[in-house]
Automatic annotation (TrEMBL):
PANTHER family: CIBOULOT, ISOFORM A, TETRA THYMOSIN. GO terms for molecular function: actin monomer binding. One of its GO terms (cellular component) is cytosol. Residues 177-197 are annotated as: Disordered. One of its GO terms (biological process) is actin filament organization. This is Thymosin beta.
Length: 197
């Protein structure tokens, strides 16, 4: 910022300082844009103005300007070509090459069994909805609750006693007994008789 000013800025400032020194009205300059009034122009300090006027351009070095143009990658080029070919294909599409076709609307109707089942179901629903209760006959309801015979009742009582005896069994009422294992072995005479037989 405090170093040597760039060429563009210094040339512009130099031209502006010359215009101020000559006191040429800005509105008489030929430019395509409306020039601002003298009041609107930025004020340049006196010491900066003197530095700009006394600037020696021979101190500047000649520099070759290198324009760097970034070329797109191969992928970008391929993508652009693909998009362009698609757009060209759409724009130049010949609709006369299309074949005329007739649209066939297919509405499969249900078969006879499905129609009959649906009618039967609908008739049942209609019969329930529009049922006429006045055509019904009045009847007396007889509740019959036949009791089982006496033998069946006695058999059931015996079964219940037996089950209660098993469920409510008290093992403390059992008597302690000793088990005596008896495994009589055959005598020698019996063994010899079996061998000879």
């Amino acid at each position: 910022m405090y170093g040597r000013p760039s060429t563009k800025v210094s040339v512009y400032a130099l031209q502006m300082s010359r215009l101020w020194d000559r006191e040429i009205p800005i509105n008489k300059m030929a430019c395509s844009v409306d020039a601002p009034s003298l009041k609107d122009l930025p004020k340049v300090a006196v010491d900066l103005k003197s530095q700009l006027e006394g600037f020696n351009q021979s101190c500047l070095r000649d520099v070759d300007t290198n324009e760097k143009i970034v070329l797109p990658s191969a992928e970008d080029v391929a993508t652009e070509k693909t998009q362009k070919s698609l757009f060209d294909g759409i724009e130049k599409f010949d609709a006369t090459r299309l074949k005329h076709t007739e649209t066939q609307e297919k509405n499969p109707l249900p078969d006879k069994d499905v129609v009959a089942a649906e009618k039967q179901h609908q008739n049942l629903l209609d019969g329930v909805e529009h049922f006429d209760k006045t055509q019904m006959k009045h009847t007396e309801t007889e509740e019959k609750n036949p009791l089982p015979p006496i033998e069946a009742i006695e058999a059931e009582k015996e079964k219940n006693k037996f089950l209660n005896g098993i469920e409510n069994f008290d093992p403390t009422k059992l008597k302690h007994t000793e088990t005596c294992e008896k495994n009589p072995l055959p005598t020698k005479d019996v063994i010899e008789q079996e061998k000879t037989a």
